[in-house]
Design a protein that fits this description.
- The protein is an all-alpha fold and 104 residues long.
- The protein has one domain.
- It is built from 4 helices and no strands.
- Helix 2 packs antiparallel against helix 4.
Length: 104
Amino acid sequence: MSMDAEMYQKIHDDPRFQQLVTQRARWVWSLSAIILVLYFSFILLIAFMPGWLAQPIEADTVMTIGIPLGVVIIVSAFVLTGIYVHMANTRFDALTQAILQDLS
């Protein structure tokens, strides 16, 4: 077994690595589910309630309810991405560095 293969096996067997994989997967799936629910809910609103989305926000404006809802969905995608990046740069990277330092 080569040195690289031994190192990879040690990393894989480390319980903190398993914790890292589990935590990262939980965050990825949770944030993905949130954005998918938001997107599909908006599409379902477009399909089944177009009249409601087309209503003006106020009587004397041309902006409809659908415009700010669409903007909220787009902004939420950026916010959720930012949350993941923050988690990756703090918790996940710290755990990765701790694993590598202990095994090297």
